[in-house]
Amino acid sequence: MDKKVLENLELLQKRLNVCKAVANAKRLQILDLMRDGEICVCDITSAVDLEQSNVSQHLTVLKNAGILTSRRNGQHVLYKVRNEKIFDFMDALDALLLEELETASKLLKGLQ
Length: 112
Known about the structure:
Blueprint: H1 3-22, H2 25-33, E1 39-40, H3 41-48, H4 52-64, E2 68-73, E3 76-81, H5 85-111
Antiparallel strand pairs: 1-3, 2-3
């Protein structure tokens, strides 16, 4: 197989892994909590109203997709995004969706 094709397949697979990882409302909430930087699992647990075990599962998915990193600080595990460009991606998606909603709203008003 051509090297360029392989590189594209690897990129597509990575893209798929990231999309799968963020295709969950709680994981998106968790990422939004990290916009201000590092955060402890205990703080995430209370903010998203989930049990610690569920939060840990979501964090593992995000970490395995390469979106998060973690470090231990005493008894606490702190998480942060590996690359803040993930927020650019989320913001661009929000802008696209808001634009689509606005267009749909204008079309509906025009039909009335």
